[in-house]
Design brief:
Elements: H1 13-43, E1 46-48, H2 49-56, H3 60-68, E2 74-76, E3 83-86, H4 87-95
Antiparallel strand pairs: 1-3, 2-3
Helix pairs in contact: 2-3
Length: about 100
């Protein structure tokens, strides 16, 4: 982070706090940018039924039941009946 001089004269306490808050938020945003980029990519990540079942500690047949009752939404592979599942949905089920 660059060393920047901040003139505090003729500044109210609220203005000073606001200026500091903005500087800290900007610094944090810059540091987290690579992490946020990876998380955005993971939002659209998909996994196989077997992987989903292993993560949740259930059988692949139970994954099918989750689809039937609406707990998971399948994503079909083009030109096939092969299904995948959103990683974000599986992780949300882990939290339940």
């Amino acid at each position: 982070m660059k060393n920047e001089m901040l003139l505090v004269q003729q500044m109210t306490g609220e203005q000073l706090i606001s200026t500091i808050r903005l500087a800290v938020e900007n610094a944090i945003e810059k540091k987290l940018a690579p992490v946020i980029s990876v998380l955005k990519k993971l939002e659209n990540a998909t996994i196989e039924r077997k992987e989903a079942a292993e993560m949740l500690g259930i059988s692949p047949m139970t994954i099918s039941n989750y689809v039937t009752c609406g707990k998971l939404s399948p994503i079909f592979t083009k030109g096939s009946s092969h299904m995948k599942y959103k990683l974000s949905e599986v992780l949300a089920l882990l939290k339940e």
